[in-house]
Structures are given as structure tokens and as C-alpha cells.
Amino acid sequence: MSADVSSDAGHDARLDAYWMPFTANRQFKQSPRLLTGADGMFFRDDKGRDVLDSIAGLWCVNAGHNRPRIVRAIQEQAAELDFAPPFQMAHPKAFELADRLAQIAPAGLNRVFFTNSGSESVETALKMAIAYHRVRGEGARTRLIGRERGYHGVNFGGISVGGMVANRKMFGHLLAGVDHIRHTHDPARNAFSIGVPQHGAEFADDLERLIALHDASTIAAVIVEPVAGSTGVLIPPAGYLQRLREICDKHGILLIFDEVITGFGRTGQPFAAQTFGVTPDLMTVAKGITNGCVPMGAVFAQQKIHDAFMTGPEHLIEFFHGYTYSAHPLACAAGIATLNTYADGDLLTRAGRMEAEFAQALHSLRDEPNVIDVRNIGLVGGIELKPIPGEPAKRAFNVFLDCWNQGLLIRTTGDTIALSPPLIIESQHIERIIATLRDALRRAA
Ligand code: PXG
Ligand code: PLP
After folding, report:
1. What is the CATH number of the domain that holds 149?
2. Buried/exposed 275-311: b ≥16 CB within 10 Å, e otherwise
3. Which of 39, 289, 379, 402 is exposed most, by the fewest CB atoms within 10 A?
4. To test ligand 1's pocket by mutation, which of 59, 183, 282 has the most ligand atoms within 8 angstroms of CB?
């Protein structure tokens, strides 16, 4: 863009109209970072530089960028059937994709409801949980329990059960009847744990405290991320998820796993439920379901939950919920091609095979300046930095800008660096990520 169109703020005025999501808009527009192409492990920017992608776009491009099979499937679908209404109508690929997804899902999660994002998946799951109890005659179970530091997207249900303060405090009273169990972060006991931290299964007992307060008969569901991503990569302590499952079972409360980030191979199995051996009643996904290529999300439900709705006259709608673009043909075509691509490369279990090497590389940063914790599981890494006094998030943002200038895309949240590379990552990419980060951490000291 030419420099002759400038706004009062001293940047190109043609950047003004786009109000960017979750972005420091003014900082960005002074010095834009524009991506114009991608292939495999790399983005290309508008200056023609190759930028190594250590975050799979935004935790979504799990098979790497611009995979030919997925690209072709989208192109062919667009030319064949652009749109099909999803209410009272369908197209064949919606059934094919749901069936394929059910085959790789954790045990029993064999009913699939399509949405267009993780946020929509969360709203859908919360509504399913409340309605499920109602159709079974337990209509008093309306309360939803989330967890401190949780991220469940940005819609009102999601920020209500979510626990990231900045995402909630601006937006009023949110949903009524929501409470939160405590988070699982315990650096005093668990800092620099390699993989699953050993201490803190008892944090799950906080759910018993809320049950004692509200009574189980008022609680519909508990929603947690198996691994909390957005808040800065918190790995569940050994035994914690099992304990949550047991408490939910004891009290007839549904357990929802939000696997928007952990789904599709991130932790070493197709889903974190399988990695941790704990099966939820409902499971939300998005992102990797189409390798990030076309927006799509889904909710997986245990068959008993689906079947509970299948009562009443057969010509009546059973669940009054859905989106114009649920099971969009382009998304379904991309989803099927994505599952084929994952299968071809054995990608949904590759994070487990790469975990030890990735962990060792990450933890080699522990003695670099201001590193106060390193956390990892599968192909997820978190590096927590000591904040600059009085300027939270600044040190990590400086590291982010430095890495960008060195041709590496990372992600930061607060003062934690989060890494979630495409599952096709090779040793040479790991080495480059760690070397670039090491230099940037030293410069940010
Ligand atoms: N649940 C979880 C667990 C997520 O991680 C969502 C729901 C919402 O998905 P959508 O598709 O509506 O964005 C997410 C999304 C980050 C980051 O930097 C994480 C997400 C989104 C944007 C940034 O950690 N996760
Ligand atoms: N708002 C209005 C006025 C609508 O008519 C619709 C859908 O028909 C929506 C919102 C919801 O849009 P979507 O189904 O894409 O979520």
C-alpha cells in the first residue's frame, strides 16, 4: 500500500475500517504484520519472507498449511454444491463427515452436531446439557459450572462459564446461575514439570464444595478444557480429570470437555479424552476439524443424550437449535479431506511420538532470563515469563515482536508464550523455534 493515504494516527488510512479481533489495533496499524501465503510449516509475508509457524495458525492448522488434498476438495465442492439448507434438508457429505468423526471419537460419543466455530460449539453444548435434563424430567438442573482461567470462546454462554477476567469484566452480568471451580495452576509445587504435573488431583474436589452450596439437583453440567490453552497452557494434574468424572457421575452432572484446542491430535491421541482416559458426556471441537481451512465446529454427544431428545411426535423438531451454516458443504468437504490427510500421515498420534523431543527442547529454555515455568504435553508448550514490573504482558509481547522479526510466529497470552506447532513438525523446525526463542528471551532480559 502506498504511503500517501495516511490517517491522523499516522498510518495508512486504508487499514482503518477493519476492526481487528483480539488485537492491539493501534500498535498493529502502525506496523502491520501481513500474511499473504502459506505452505507446510511456513507462512509467507507481504515482504516475501518465510515465517515458521509454531502455533498451527491459531491452534488449528494441524496438518500444516495448504495441503493439496484439502485445497482440491474445497475447490471441487464449491463448483458442485455451494450451499444446502441444513434445516429439514441435508447433503450427503454431512452424514459422511459425522460418521467418520464418530469413528475416531472417544467411546460412545457417536452423535455429532455441527456448528461454525468453537464458540458456537460451546453455546450448543451448554444448551444441550440444560435441555437434556429437562427432557428427562429434571428441569431444575439449569446451573452451569466452569473453571477459573477457562476459555470457552467469546459468546455469552462461553464467557459466563469461562474464567479469563479480561474476556468477562467488560460485558455486564452474563448468564445467571453460573459458578466456577478453582483453576489447577500451582507453580509452587509443579513448576517445570515435564508433561503431566504430579500435584493437584485434589483441586477437582472443589466441585464438591459447589455441589454442597448449590445442591446437585440444580446443576446441569461442568465444562472444562482438558488442557487449558488460551489462559497459558495449564496441564491437568495426574488424576484430576478422573476425579472430576467421578464426582460428576456420583451426582448426575454432565461433564463437558471443551476440546477446541486439544482435539485432532494435539496431545498425542485424536482427542485429549483418549490421552487422559476420561470420557466426557459432551465434547466440543472446532479448529482442526477442517485443518482451519473452512470455519467449522461440532459437538459430540453420548448416544444416550441424543436419544433422550427423540421422543414426542415424529414430525416435530426435537432440539430447537442450529445455525444457517451448520454442516456447510464446503466445511464438510474440507473436513472429510482433512480426516483423510490426518490418516495418511498418521498425524493424530504423531504428537505422542514427538513429545519427548519437543519437551526436551522446550525445557532447555528453563535457565534463560525471566523464565519462571515451562509446561508441556504432546505438541503443546507453555513458557511463562516473569512480568516486567508494572507492565503485565509487555515482556512476552516484546518476545513475540522479536520472533516475528526473526521469521518465527509464536503466540503469547499475558506473559506466557504458547506453542502448538503443526503436527507435521520435524526436528529441524523444533531446533529453529528454540534457537530463535532463546535469542529473543536474552534480548528481552
Ligand atoms: N473453546 C476453547 C477451549 C478454545 O480454545 C474456543 C472455545 C472458541 O473457538 P472459536 O473458534 O470461536 O475461536 C477456543 C478458541 C489463543 C487462542 O491464543 C485460542 C483460541 C482462540 C483464539 C486464540 O490461545 N481458542
Ligand atoms: N439474525 C437474524 C436476523 C437471522 O435471520 C439469523 C438467521 O436466520 C441469525 C441472526 C442467525 O444467523 P446464523 O444462523 O448464521 O447464526
Report:
1. 3.40.640.10
2. bbebbbbbbbbbbbbbbbbbbbbbbbbbeebbebbee
3. 39
4. 59
